[in-house]
Amino acid sequence: MYVAVKGGERAIENAHAWLAEERRGxxxxxxxxxxxxxxQMTLAVNRVMAEGSLYDPDLAALAIKQxxxxxxEAIFLIRAYRTTLPRLMAxxxxxxxxxxxxxxxxxxxxxxxxxQILGPTFDYTHRLLDFALxxxxxxxxxxxxxxxxxxxxxxxxSFLDRDGLIEEATPSDEPPPDLTRAPLELPADRxxxxxxxxxxxxxxxxxxxxxxxxxxxxxxxxVGELRIGTCPVEVDIPELGFSVEIGDIELTxxxxxxxxxxxxxxxxxxxxxxxxxxxxxxxxxxxxALVDRALRWRELGEDFTGAPAQDEEFVLSHCDNIQATGFLxxxxxxxxxxxxxxLELIRSVRAAAFASREAAE
Amino acid sequence: MxxxxxxxxxxxxxxTKRMIRRALLKAVAIPGYQVPFASREMxxxxxxGTGGVQVxxxxxxxxxxxxxxxxxADDTTNAxxxxxFFQRTAGVEVTExxxxxxxxxxxxxxxxxxxxxxxxxVFQVPIPEPxxxxxxxxxxxxxxxALADYGLMQVKLYEDIARHGRIAxxxxxxxxxxxxxxxDPSPIPKFDNPKLDDSPALxxxxxxREQRIYALPPYTRVxxxxxxxxxxxxxxxxxxxxxCGATESYxxxxxxxxxxxxxxxxxxxxxxxxxxxxxx
Lengths: 361, 280
Prior knowledge:
Low-confidence stretches of chain A: 1-5
Low-confidence stretches of chain B: none
CATH topology of the largest domain in chain B: Rossmann fold
Number of domains of chain B: 2
Structural class of chain A: alpha+beta
Strand content of chain A: 5-15%
Mean pLDDT of chain B: 94
Oligomer: heterodimer
Largest sheet of chain B: 7 strands, mixed
Structural class of chain B: alpha/beta
Helix content of chain A: 25-40%
Order of helices and strands of chain A: HHHHHEHHHEEEHHHH
Mean pLDDT of chain A: 90
Shape of chain B: globular
């Protein structure tokens, strides 16, 4: 006989206890510290900070530990925490030209003032499993440059800018909209699009960027410059009358140079795509720059070819992985009532169909 | 997160509540119109009722008595989870009795017991846009609402009749509010649609992920879309509840064995229980 489904509360408590036990894993294996995650899973920490929109390596490490390494779950924990924080003040714009770079490359110029710095990159590693790491081997210290990084690191695209070969990046003092404090309204301006992309899902933005390279909204991008390093963050203190540095953040910035043949409104000129992300997250920053460029078709007088990466509403409505995973996974929740309504409907439609078939025979 | 004291009453900070209340006031002023609001990330996933939770949080006062149901039942896992969330963060009284509740948060059902003046129903809404599956672009559907351009919906309903002999929508059945806005009543079965019409309770709809709030003030005219020769019918399984015998309540079908055995029981557990108690 039917027993009403009771005990939801106990089921939830037990599930949580089981989850905690699974998270810890075999107690005979030492527990991971969040410091270990922060120091040795840095790129995971960076992704969680970038898509969680909160620069805090310790909290990101905690979120990764709590989420059992599920990065989208970790990003969700950070977002839910972030949303409760008061907005005390806005920083002054971060000057990425003054970045203390650890990596800086250009695919468009062999050399440029400030030089190229390969930095800590996987780019030229051979992807061979390093079995030495199984034995927890210590690594010898890396050699350091005799001189520190060059003092002056102007943006490489500024050289093209000087010759008028690339579109001007017009500075604006307009305060940018805040996606987390105002509902998304379309059409969105570029600042809002960039904001959505920088916290958008890495996989989704990567896929869109890739699609532009394969011809769906092609805009042939060169990496004009990719730089990674730390920038000071300053805030204006009205009582003091000057700005005060409150800390450093690591950023990845990507500027692309895109082919452009000119249009009804513009002379032939290179155009720009821009990506800026927290931490060392260069796949994301490059992807972001390509998608940014694809979304700019209207202001550049290009044709809309129907490519997904050109479609602002499509991109902005679907790039957030916390929204996406929530809605996707919610179909696990009970839908008995709606399914029952569908059952009644399909039974009645089928009954009517059988009746009319019999009548015809 | 052990110390919930670190959070404000009902979790949300007062500025956020004020922002939501402003959206609610606008929604009440323009019944059926979808008001954009700056939905927050909540500590439960999008799709689990974040819109409803934010609306409830913005409406709750310490004197309220809260009822939370999912699929009509008070003890489904997500209803339990949301009720506990407000017990922890707001410390309000909770109840399973529809008559005793001042605020009822629901997913997919309207309770069977008649609602009263002063009560607030809060609906969790996944896709607030009734035209969404006819036109995916928000920019376009907003224009259609502005112009009351609902021809596409009429055509869809007509095509259903041409193809299936009836309107093939069993839940989230579209309604027209005060003769103006076409509105998604949330995925309630169409059986529940008539309960929205001229209801003495205030009905609030929250869609967190889609950042929309809309409302039906008390005693609002709510008509389910239909045609003169194909009038709307609020259908349910043609059975009585196998537990309490009710013939007028919405039923869940429960499979009891692998021989095709099944029984029908009230989806509204509080309603079913009170009928059983009355019989004893």
